[in-house]
C-alpha cells in the first residue's frame, strides 16, 4: 500500500500491461519518466521477464541507448500476495554506469522476491576489478559511486524493498549462503550458475533456483548488446570532444562559463533520444577526418561548422540546417570575440550548404570554397567507409526515419537520394577525399540502392 501511495504522490506514470497501445505510450513518456506497468500480482516470473525484456528492448530500439528510461512492474495494493516468488534473492555484478540492461535485471530481481523477502546485491570491489581485464577500466566508476547509484535506483523503484549491498571479491561472491533461494542472472552469465550450484551441493547447501534475464540488445539484427563497456566508450568519446572544445574556446578567448554552457547544449542535442546516426559519434568521426587534412585555409571556420551543422535535427522538419546555422551565429555573437563574429557569416554559409551538399557559392573566394569542399567531404566521409561501417550507418539512418515514413516510402525516397549522389561525376569534391573514399563510396551506394529498390532496408547480411 505504501508503494502505491508513493507512486500517486510522486505522479509516477502507471500503464496497464493489457493496454493495446502500451508500446506507444511508453515511448511517449520514456524520455525522462519512471514508468510503471501494472500487471496481475501473481504474474509468473518467466512471463514478467518476457514482458520487461520486450518493453526495454522496444524503448532501446525506438529511442536509442542514450535514453535514460526506467520501466518497472507494479500491481494494485488490493491484489493478493505474489505466488511462486522467493524469500531471498541475490544478484551480482559491477553495475558500472547504470544502463537499461542493469535496470532490466534489477527490476526483474525486485519482482522475484516476496513482499516480505530480501534482495542481496553483490557489487564487485575496486580491488577485484583491478585484477581483471576490462575495456577502458580507467573509466569504471569507483565502488562508492556504484553503490550510491544502486541504492538510489532501488529506492526509486520500491522504497519498501529490504535490500543489502555486499562487496564481491571473487567470482562466487556471497552466492554460497544457505539463506538464499534464487539467483538472477543474464543469459551471458547463466553458465556460471552450474559451477556455483555444484559447489553448494558439495557443501551440503540446496542449489539455487535460477531466474534468467534476456540480454537487451543494441541492435536486434546483429546481436550487439548494451553493456557498460559500450557506455564507457561513449563517456570516453564525450570527454575527448569536451577536451577539443575547451582547447578551441580557450585559444579563442571565449568566456569559460559560456563555453561550458554551450558544450552542454551541444551534447544534449546530439545525444537526444531518437538520434541514431547524427550523434556525438558522428562529430567524433568527422573530427578524426578533420585532423588528417592539412590543406585547410581556415580551420576555425571548418571546426565551428562541424560542431553546429547537425545541432538541430528533426526528421519531420525541413529547416534543420537553417536552425542549426542560426544557433551557430548566435553563439559567435554571444562570445563577443571579434574573430568569431567576423567568421560567423562564413560558418553560416558552410552549415547551410549541407542542405544540398553543393559548392556553387559565387560569394566565396577560392580559399573559402576549398575549405567548403573539404567540410562537405568530411560530412560525407561515412559513405566511403568499409562496407560494415556503411551498413551500420544506413541502418541508423533508417531508424531515425521509422516513425515518419513507412518502410516502403522510406526505401523509395532514400533510393532517389542515393541515386542522385551516385549520378554525380564526383561524390567527393576535394582531391584528397576523392582519392581516399570515392571508389568505396560508389560500391556502398550501389549496394544499398540494390537493397532499397527491392523494398528492403540494408542489413548486416548483405555483402559487396
TrEMBL record:
> Which SUPFAM superfamilies does the entry link to?
HD-domain/PDEase-like (SSF109604), Nucleotidylyl transferase (SSF52374)
Q: Which Gene3D superfamilies match?
A: HUPs (3.40.50.620)
Organism lineage reads as: Eukaryota, Sar, Rhizaria, Endomyxa, Phytomyxea
State the organism of origin.
Answer: Spongospora subterranea
Where the record annotates domain Cytidyltransferase-like, the positions are: 90-234
**Protein name, per record:** Cytidyltransferase-like domain-containing protein
- Any one GO molecular function term: catalytic activity
Amino acid at each position: 500500500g505504501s508503494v502505491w501511495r508513493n507512486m500517486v504522490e510522486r505522479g509516477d506514470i502507471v500503464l496497464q500491461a493489457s493496454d493495446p497501445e502500451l508500446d506507444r505510450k511508453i515511448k511517449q513518456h520514456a524520455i525522462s519518466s519512471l514508468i510503471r506497468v501494472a500487471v496481475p500480482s501473481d504474474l509468473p516470473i518467466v512471463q514478467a521477464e518476457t514482458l520487461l525484456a520486450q518493453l526495454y528492448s522496444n524503448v532501446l530500439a525506438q529511442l536509442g541507448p542514450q535514453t535514460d528510461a526506467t520501466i518497472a512492474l507494479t500491481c494494485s495494493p488490493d491484489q493478493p500476495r505474489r505466488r511462486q516468488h522467493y524469500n531471498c534473492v541475490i544478484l551480482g555484478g559491477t553495475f558500472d554506469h547504470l544502463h537499461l540492461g542493469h535496470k532490466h535485471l534489477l527490476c526483474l530481481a525486485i519482482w522475484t522476491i516476496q513482499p516480505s523477502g530480501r534482495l542481496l546485491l553483490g557489487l564487485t570491489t575496486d580491488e577485484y576489478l583491478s585484477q581483471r581485464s576490462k575495456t577502458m577500466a580507467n573509466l569504471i566508476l569507483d565502488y562508492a559511486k556504484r553503490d550510491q547509484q544502486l541504492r538510489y535506483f532501488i529506492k526509486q523503484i520500491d522504497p519498501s524493498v529490504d535490500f543489502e549491498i555486499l562487496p564481491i571479491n571473487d567470482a562466487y561472491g556471497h552466492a554460497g549462503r544457505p539463506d538464499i533461494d534464487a539467483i538472477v542472472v543474464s543469459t551471458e552469465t547463466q553458465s556460471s550458475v552450474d559451477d556455483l550450484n555444484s559447489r553448494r551441493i558439495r557443501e551440503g547447501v540446496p542449489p539455487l533456483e535460477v531466474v534468467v534475464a534476456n540480454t537487451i540488445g543494441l541492435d536486434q539484427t546483429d546481436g550487439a548488446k548494451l553493456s557498460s563497456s559500450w557506455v564507457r566508450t561513449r563517456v570516453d568519446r564525450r570527454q575527448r570532444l569536451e577536451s577539443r572544445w575547451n582547447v578551441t574556446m580557450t585559444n579563442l578567448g571565449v568566456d569559460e562559463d559560456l563555453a561550458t554552457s554551450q558544450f552542454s547544449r551541444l551534447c544534449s542535442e546530439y545525444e537526444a533520444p531518437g538520434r541514431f546516426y547524427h550523434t556525438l559519434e558522428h562529430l567524433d568521426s568527422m573530427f578524426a577526418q578533420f585532423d588528417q587534412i592539412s590543406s585547410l585555409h581556415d580551420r576555425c571556420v571548418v571546426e565551428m561548422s562541424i560542431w553546429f551543422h547537425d545541432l538541430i535535427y528533426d526528421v519531420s522538419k525541413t529547416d534543420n540546417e537553417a536552425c542549426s546555422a542560426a544557433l551557430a551565429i548566435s553563439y559567435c555573437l554571444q562570445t563577443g570575440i571579434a574573430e568569431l563574429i567576423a567568421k560567423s557569416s562564413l560558418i553560416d554559409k558552410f552549415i547551410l550548404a549541407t542542405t544540398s551538399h553543393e559548392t556553387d557559392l559565387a560569394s566565396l573566394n577560392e580559399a573559402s570554397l576549398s575549405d567548403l569542399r573539404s567540410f562537405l567531404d568530411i560530412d560525407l566521409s561515412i559513405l566511403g567507409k568499409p562496407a560494415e561501417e556503411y551498413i551500420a550507418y544506413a541502418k541508423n539512418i533508417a531508424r531515425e526515419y521509422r516513425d515518419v515514413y513507412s518502410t516502403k516510402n522510406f526505401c523509395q525516397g532514400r533510393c532517389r537520394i542515393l541515386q542522385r549522389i551516385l549520378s554525380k561525376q564526383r561524390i567527393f569534391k576535394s582531391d584528397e577525399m576523392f582519392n581516399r573514399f570515392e571508389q568505396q563510396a560508389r560500391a556502398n551506394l550501389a549496394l544499398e540502392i540494390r537493397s532499397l529498390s527491392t523494398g528492403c532496408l540494408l542489413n548486416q547480411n548483405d555483402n559487396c
